[in-house]
Records
---
Amino acid sequence: MVTMAGSLWHGFADMGSVSTDGPFVVTRGEGARIWDAQGNSYLDATAGLWFTNVGHGRTEIADAVRAQLTTLAHYSGFGDLTADITDALADRLAALAPVPGSKIFFTSGGSDSVDTAAKLARRYWTEVGKPEKTVLVGRTKAYHGMHVAGTSLAGIPANHDGYGQLMPDAESVGWDDAKSLLGLIERVGADRVAAFFCEPIIGAGGVYLPPEGYLAEVRQICRDHDVLFVADEVVTGFGRIGGDSWFASSRFDLQPDLMTTAKGLTSGYVPMGAVFVAPRIAEPFYAGGVWWRHGYTYGGHAGAAAAAMANLDIIEREGLLAEATRLETELATVLRPLADLDAVSEVRTGLGAVSAVQLADPARAQDAVAAMRRHGVSGRAAGQGALQISPAFVMSTAEVGDLASRIGDALS
Ligand code: PLP
């Protein structure tokens, strides 16, 4: 008989085994730690799904959201309407943008941001008289969320399974091969290619750092062929890339035409995303007479904007960009020795507060995650057996060392 215990259908899960084994129920978080329903504490290796950048349990964010919700929870961001705090947040984000003068289009999360960018790229080319530029290009290993455009652009084959072709005009090139982008543009024709979507670090596809010079090279290829460069910074944004930078696009001077963000914008306290639009792309839409029929009921939600404001306050006041930079060095130092374990084939580290411990046998990924839990670490496998290490920026030096030794014990 099929076991169907519990009412909650989990995302990205084999519900057969979740029903049989029971869920892992998390009840509390503080700093870089979480607690389960039995009161056991775990180091949070992943900051949830790469988002709790300022750490768990920040009452300051909760207080800001409460104050906003009791004043004005939300109204509408369509037409000429906005909440005062949403307007102020857009100005604050524009001041941090890698491209000066960027416009900010708010969404409810990363998948919304990606599909907004996909539609905006195509609509932009229509507005400037090149409607035949419709092809969107992603990369092998890429993850761009779960809406139709993002799923179509993903380079994780299993994420396409069972849907047929969701979006025509989606192409894929090698994640680490700038020449394959050039080859595709030459084959399809620059007059048909609208945009190239690029995660500065491949995240959910297994945590792969860009080869030296890769980002600059693909950026230049896009410039040379009039293809919009879309930096998907849902993971890397708001400090996670290290280098004391708000965005990978700033650290690597990518000058993206469009930049998608979410997660670290609010540190996940409330769902929110934002697309940063370079002035050249926004211009046709600001010329008068163009009505872009796109937007989300909760885009720029006032309560979420309050969370984002408080989150940015914390990052600035506590110097958390520098803490992410500290983690870049510390993670590399403590994780590299794990490559000597039989269970580990490679450690990918050294760029931002993001690393991966690659299991030699990807089929053992769930066993490894379970072993880590027994050793007091809440972790997760991405891609093909890559243990994702992306802690909150407030994880202390001692906790980073403890994290590595617990993972080492779990994998030994
Ligand atoms: N883009 C990237 C690079 C991501 O890593 C993710 C989520 O992990 C998304 C988009 C989708 O974000 P969300 O899950 O908030 O819709």
---
Amino acid sequence: MDNDELSRTVKVVRSWLMEARDNVLRQIDSRLKVATKSSRSDLVTNIDRSNEQFIVNKIREFDSKAKILGEEGFGDQVTNSDGRVWIVDPIDGTMNFVKQRNHFAMMISLYINGDGVLGFIMDVMNNELLYGGPDFGVFLNSNQMTKANNLKLKDGLIGLSGPMVIHNDFNMQEIANTSLGMRVYGSAGIDMIAVLKGELVGYISYLKPWDFGAGRILAETIGLKITTIDGHQLGVLSSEPVLLATENAHHDILTIVKK
Ligand code: 2AM
Ligand code: CA
Ligand code: CA
Ligand code: CA
């Protein structure tokens, strides 16, 4: 994509997200219709659905030939990463949305032939939008972000998934112990924003493509490392235990995982 097309795409996706945010805020005090999916902690609400429908409609108008992978199923059946692929998580942190009406995000990303082009993560209640990509840079609202500070695990806070810590998957308790402390925010988008801003040295969770699609592009652009928990490259369409961290913390965590 040339610079003009990148700028135009960023501008239009930002406008969708601002409109989507207004739609969510207008309904924030309404009674939600909540349904469970795979388990009692895996929720979907009428707003996850209407928000995905809204974003998918916008993408179809803007980029009619592209494929769309949406968590709640309003997109297409995407079986490979050929061509233009948009990935949408309409509400990330649905449990937080339902129980707290806070600490949730919206995420959109664009991949072309498997390469990350643009990622967008919006912290809805905080009104923070992080966006950009390798040929654009990363911005927080209107301010360009600089390269991440390369802290070690022992010198920072680590964001973890609750179930992973409870079951001590991949030696998670030792990872938490080695850090200055663990945080469990419950939204991949909010956790990834914290890593991008340097508030956390890393984040580890079982994730789906719509959970890491945007964050991966932003993270790699500012020099953070994102792989599977055993250090392998992430596929665009795979579901994996994901490790996002500064280069140093990434190395420290892999050493503990492989013990
Ligand atoms: P979601 O709210 O969009 O489903 C903590 O739950 C984080 O893990 C959230 O970002 C959540 O995204 C994601 N997640 C992925 N798979 C999940 C599952 N089966 N149940 C709950 N959360 C899941
Ligand atoms: Ca979900
Ligand atoms: Ca999600
Ligand atoms: Ca979601």
